[in-house]
Amino acid sequence: MKIAFYGSSLLSSYWNGAATYYRGMLSDLARRGYSITFYEPDAFDRQKHRDIEPPEWAEVKVYPATEEALRAVIAEAARADVVVKASGVGVFDNELLEGVVAASRPEAIRIFWDVDAPATLSELRESPDHPLHRTMPALDLVLTYGGGPPVVEAYEGFGARRCIPIYNALDPSTHHPVPADERFKADLSFLGNRLPDREARVEHFFLEPAARLPNRSFLIGGNGWETKGMPANVRHIGHVYTRDHNAFNTSPLAVLNIARDSMATTGFSPATRVFEAAGAGACLITDAWVGLELFLKEGEEVLVARDGKDVADHVEALTPARAKAIGDAARERILKEHTYARRGAEVDAIFRQQASQKQERSVA
Hints:
Strand 4, helix 3 and strand 5 form a beta-alpha-beta unit. A 7-stranded parallel beta sheet has the order 3-2-1-4-5-6-7, sandwiched between helices. A 6-stranded parallel beta sheet has the order 10-9-8-11-12-13, sandwiched between helices. About 40% of the residues lie in helices and about 15% in strands. The longest helix has 24 residues, at about 340-364. The chain folds into 2 domains: about 1-170 and about 340-364, Glycogen Phosphorylase B (Rossmann fold, 3-Layer(aba) Sandwich), CATH 3.40.50; about 180-335, Glycogen Phosphorylase B (Rossmann fold). By secondary structure, the protein is an alpha/beta fold.
């Protein structure tokens, strides 16, 4: 089957946290025989900060962020057997959604793939004229990269025929243990862009513990933090390319995961960083959220913090041997249960079932 996938970017993780998810998921589907074309706009300087060149497992079409180019890529949806519009493309999101649904063939599988379901659902509640309300009846599936039962219930309440979470996972060929790198040495490291619905939690779970532990070293990577006031023992290194993620994760004593406000509230939403860190064998400290136990076991495979004091306490108590034991246990669990090969098998089965159902309906 041919997949036309309209997303933010496959080639760049710059201001684009979904890149790892797209790469892991689509590369596995390609190995299963799918022919994939990924459409991404030339926007937000992402093409200037590419992590990868177009891979052999997908054709990537980068289009100018213009209405003329938009019309051209929308028209190509008619060639596909599976048409996917992802959330958060960043430019012409509404036009893309309505356009590719209208352009796709009746027998094609039409999917909205939401990589930030809590935010989208909030928009749907607040905006009765949101285009997703209009296109929902024409969609065969809503897939999300997290959210669990609360998101499924909410989407189906808005009229989705079927909503299925397809969680983040690990691609062990890209995220794995590597030797420590002096550039990323620290007692605690955090990687994430500065976003309005994350900043207060970063202050609480990262900057506050740094202030509590002036003799320990802290490292923050990601875009937007250069103007943020921080304790003297916090070092900011800006955007971290995916090629450096393994070293970023293996070099500190521990790595911190901080969910965004909406993700933490909804639960069942492990970030890509969770799997990247576990895949590298890092000792992960995470803020608490409902559903964590589906992925990692508290105290054995991950350390959980309810507030900044918990984070500081974990860092103070952690020894290199303990950190290694937690990281090794996390990696073993993730490799066993949460790889993109498993996710790809799940999506492949969903696609095949959906194609069979559409064929049966057309014959009837």
